[in-house]
Write a structure and sequence with these properties.
The protein is mainly beta. The chain is built from two helices and twelve strands, in the order αβββββββββββαβ. A hairpin with a 7-residue loop joins strand 8 (172-181) and strand 9.
Length: 245
């Protein structure tokens, strides 16, 4: 019981760091998108609390920054790797490195009208049973005409780190999303809603809009509502800058 309490306390301290070490994503969860070969993608993500916590304090803002690089020169099998540095003004900042990678096939690659599919891992931290959430997942996606793209998958992570406020395991869950370019307004405008299951600090419903300022630069404006605010805290606003080189 003492060990569980220690883990739960550690997770409460890490809650603001629960933002995903970002492979190519929707708003919060991974997507089936993969960076093209030799493309270097830079993400700069900010998360700011929408309200004070129960103690009357503001949760420290979180900054996530890092590169992702496409590493396979094939059309039907693609892969990316990358890392992020996370900073939120907490003791866990002393181990800020989180890595991620995924491999998959785009839509239509396996057979005619086949869905896209990826296998990947993220939040691969460097401090044992503190930052090593070590989330592995499978995800499929399919565009359905003008309705947009629908994605569904499942994840599993380190059950010593991904726990609820009582220290109980909360390391598995669904990954769901919808996204679509709003061509009726502009080819530069994109919308998404995504969901990550579970009662750990990672469980959240997120939604947002993105505007592409150019072919290689876009900004997402989003909002994250956490499944378990006792461990993840209040909802957050997020601004995410994405640049491809």
């Amino acid at each position: 019981m003492k060990t569980l309490k220690l883990i739960a306390t550690a997770l409460l301290c890490l809650a603001p760091l629960a933002a995903n070490a970002t492979p190519s994503t929707q708003i919060w969860i991974p997507s089936t998108d993969i960076q093209k070969y030799k493309t270097v993608h830079l993400n700069v993500d900010n998360y700011v609390s929408s309200a004070k916590e129960a103690a009357g304090n503001w949760k420290a803002p979180l900054l996530v920054i890092g590169p992702t690089i496409g590493v396979l020169p094939y059309e039907k099998v693609q892969a990316e790797v990358g890392f992020d540095l996370m900073r939120a003004g907490l003791t866990a900042d002393s181990d800020p490195l989180y890595m991620h990678a995924k491999v998959g096939t785009p839509e239509g690659a396996a057979f005619a009208n086949s869905p896209a599919f990826v296998l990947g891992g993220y939040n691969l931290g460097t401090k044992k049973d503190v930052t090593d959430q070590n989330i592995f997942y499978g995800l499929g996606a399919k565009n359905v005409g003008k309705m947009g793209r629908f994605s569904a998958g499942y994840f599993s992570g380190n059950d010593k780190v991904l726990v609820d406020e009582n220290g109980d395991k909360a390391n598995t869950g669904l990954l769901l999303s919808w996204d679509r370019t709003l061509t009726e307004v502009s080819d530069k405008l994109w919308a998404a809603v995504d969901y990550q299951g579970g009662d750990s600090a990672l469980g959240a419903l997120s939604f947002g809009l993105s505007w592409a300022f150019s072919g290689n630069t876009s900004v997402i404006f989003g909002y994250d509502v956490y499944n378990n605010d006792k461990i993840a805290g209040k909802a957050t606003y997020t601004v995410q800058l994405d640049i491809n080189f």
